[in-house]
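ingest -> fold -> write
write: protein_1
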Amino acid sequence: MGYSNQRFDVNLSILFTELPLLERPAAAAATGFTAVELWWPWIETPTPEQAELDALKKALDDAGTQLVGLNFYAGALPGPDRGALSIPGEESDRFRANIEVAADFAASVGCKALNALYGNRVEGTDPQVQDALALENLVLAARAADRVGAILLVETLNKPESPLYPLVSAPGAIEVIDKVNAATGLGNAKFLLDIYHLSMNGENVAEVIEAYAAKTGHVQIADNPGRGAPGTGSLPLEELLDQLSKAGYDGWVGLEYKAADAAASFEWLPAEARAAR
C-alpha cells in the first residue's frame, strides 16, 4: 500500500503561492500532478467578473489539471477569517451571493467537492443564532452542490491556530453534517478530514478514521509539527492513509502543507504516483 496507492492533489492556495494564481496549475503539472484544489481565490469578492472565472478555467484546462476541490467564499483566508456562513449581516450575505457562482464554476470545470468553512464566533453574538444561520446557509450550499453533482464539505480546524472557530473536533463537524443531511434529505454533506488539524487538536486520528471514514468526502494532509510536507514532522501519514483506504475511502488526498519551495517539497512522493488516477 503506502503513498503510491493514493490519489493526491495539490492545494494551489498554499503551495506555489509565489506565482500568480493563473500560473500555478501549470507549475503543479510541471511537477507531475494533474489534480489540484483551491481555497476561494478571490478574497475580496464572492462574485468575481466572469472574465476572471473564465481565465482560471482556461489556466486549469491549458495545464491539463483537474480541479477536485474548491472552497466557497470564506472571507479573508489566508488571514484572520475562517469562513463567512455563520456570521450575521454582510458576511452571510456575501456567502449567499457566492453559492451559485461557486457551484456554477465548479460545474464548468468538473469539480465535485465544495468546501464551506463555518466561520468564527463573533463577540457579542449568541452562538445559537450563529449556528441557526450556519445551518440555513449550509442547506442552501448543499442544494447548490447537489444541483451540479457535487458534495458539500464541512471541515474541522484546530483550536491553537483558529481559536474562534467552533468546529475544532471531528464530532463537532459530524454533528453539523448530520443536521445538514437531515434538513436536505440529499445526503451530500460530508466530512473534510484534515489529518493535520485533527492532530493539532490532540485527537486520535486513527480513531477518527475508524469512526468517520464512511462520512468522509475529502482528506487533507500536512505533517505535524510545522504543517510541512510528509516526513518533516512526526505524523505516521502513510499508515493513516493506508487505514483510510482499508476503511473504504478512495477519494482525494489534498496536499495542504507549507513549503518554501513547492517543487522540491514533493520528494517524499515518487513521480509516478503524482498523476491523477
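write: protein_2
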Amino acid sequence: MPDPRPRPGLGEPRGPSFFPGRPRPRTEPTPPPVPPPSHVTPQPQPTPRPAPPHPTRRPLTAAVLAAVLAGGLAGYAAGALGDDDSAPASAPAARAPGDLQAVAARVLPSVVSVQTARGQGSGFVFDDRGRILTNAHVVQGSSRVSIELEDGRRLSAEVIGDDPGHDVAVLEPETSRGLTAARLATGARPAVGDPVLAIGSPLGLSGTVTSGIVSALDRSVRLGEDGGGGPRRALQTDASINPGNSGGPLVDDEGRVIGINTAIATLNQNAGGSIGIGFAIPVGDAVEAARTIIDGG
C-alpha cells in the first residue's frame, strides 16, 4: 500500500517496556515454600541457601531475559556468557560473496522513492532505458510523478501506463543518466525458505532494507488498493513490508528481483503495519504486464 503521509519525522526511538519490581516495606518474611524466580532488578540479599546443582543456570536465565528486554544488547550479553580467559579469541567469520550486506549494496542504486499528490511509494529501474516498475495503486490518478534516487537526485517521470489487474505501472523518467537497471530473476523460481530482502521507502524512510524468507508460493491475493484487481498469484514473505514499500523490489540472495512488494496482511485495516505476512507480485508476471503497457496493449 502507498504511504499517504509525506516523510514524517523519525520521532523518538522506542523499545519494549520494562517495569522493575517496586520496593516493599521491610518485614520479617516467612520463608516461602518455593524459591522465587530470578529478576533482572537486584533484590535484597537473600538468606543463604545451599548452592543449586547447576550454578550457571541463573546467570543464563538473567542474560536471556536481558536480551529480550534490551534488544540491542543481546549480542553483547551472549558474547559475555561465552567468555573464557583460557580460550583464544576467535577471528571474525569471513563474509561469503553472496551475503545480504553485499546484496543490499548492489541493489540499492536501482531503487527509487515515488512521490505523488496522493502519497508515496517505491519502485525500481528494470531496463536499460531507465524505465521504472512500480504498483498501479501507487500512481493511481497521476500522469506525472516525482522520483528520488539513492544519491538524492529528484527527477520527474511520466506514467506511461498501468495495469490495475496486475497492479503494475511503468514510469519513464526525464533522463536515464545515472540510472542502473536491477537484475531480474525472470527465468528462476524461488523456493520456500529462500532468504530475501525487501527494499523501499516505508513511511518515507528511503533506502530501507528488511530481510526474511520466502514463506509460501502461489498465494491467491486480491491486488490493487481496494482488491478490485481480482485474485492473482503472489509470493508470500515474512520480510517486513509497511506503507510506502509498495512497488519496491523483493530480491533473492544473489541480488536478483523476484517480485514487486505490493500488499500485506494486517490485523487492523485502519492502522495496518507489518505482522510478518507480506505479498509480492512474481517478477515474471510483472515484466509481462510491463511489456504489454510499453507496447501499448
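write: annotation protein_2
The two ends are 26 Å apart (CA to CA).
The longest strand covers residues 208-222.
pipeline exit 0
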